[in-house]
Amino acid sequence: MHRGWVGSACFGVCLLLMSGCYNAAPKSASGASAEAHIRFWPRFTRLSGLRVPATYVQTCRLEPQMCFATSGHVPRSMLRPLRLPRPRPNEPCPADHGRLTSDFAPYGGVALGRGPVYANVAIGRARPVRNGVMLLRPSYRQGRWYAIKTMWIAAPSYRGPILIRGRQLNGPHPLGLGDQAPPLAGLQLPPHTSTNSTKSWRDYPGAAWLRSAGCYGWQVDGTNFSETIVFRARKPK
């Protein structure tokens, strides 16, 4: 897959933590500097080399299996601070339990999250994922990254834009998103449309990319909701 960057305005780049514009961050209509929004992205995304799309176009050009767009980016109101939990040392990972996706949506797999946007995880065995555990299998490894096949699905009741970000909760490692390594550090998905849909559900196929076992979390933001999804990753026994 061709994963070249497209050009974007400096405002959009600064808005979502792209490097190179920090010294000239433009002012918003309210006079607030775009630099204020840097803190909404995990700090390590600048240090690990993961790309952070600043627009819908950048996401869709890099991940054409997910979406298509010609302009725009998520509203400023969706750039909420990350509210992911931080387990203390020796504290168990507060993983969310999942449920069979086929119980409420036209897909197989196990769904994590309260909705209206869910992480739909492909399964070999349902029980670990239903307990919030994902297995790091050597056969799904590219370089330093383990891939866990994950499709994001959005219920027909929500047609707005989606912003997804994540990180390790008990360590320094990033949580990547997208179809292949090196992954992205976040996804901006445009409203109303997706490359694929099933019975009015929008779906965005890809993977979660991890470098090690541990406790991880996503924050999924929409125009009228914000939710966190926590899971534990481990190697098979």
Output the keywords.
237 residues, mainly beta, 8-stranded antiparallel β-sheet, 5-stranded mixed β-sheet, 4 helices, 13 strands, disordered N terminus
Description:
The two termini are 33 Å apart. This protein has helices spanning 10-15, 44-47, 56-62, 126-130; strands spanning 99-100, 110-112, 117-121, 133-135, 141-142, 145-154, 162-168, 176-178, 186-189, 196-198, 201-210, 214-221, 226-234. 9% of the residues lie in helices and 29% in strands. The chain is built from four helices and 13 strands. Strand 2 (110-112) and strand 3 (117-121) form a beta hairpin. Strands 1, 2, 3, 5, 6, 8, 10 and 11 form an eight-stranded antiparallel beta sheet that branches. Strands 4-13-12-7-9 form a five-stranded mixed beta sheet. The relative contact order is 0.20. Mean pLDDT is 81; it is low at 1-47. The protein is globular. With 237 residues, the chain is mostly beta strands.
Provide a concise account of the structure shown.
The protein has 237 residues and is mostly beta strands. The protein has helices at 10-15, 44-47, 56-62, 126-130; strands at 99-100, 110-112, 117-121, 133-135, 141-142, 145-154, 162-168, 176-178, 186-189, 196-198, 201-210, 214-221, 226-234.
**Which oligomeric form is depicted?**
single chain
Structural category is mainly beta
Given as residue ranges, the uncertain stretches (5+ residues, pLDDT < 50) are 1-47
Radius of gyration: 17 Å
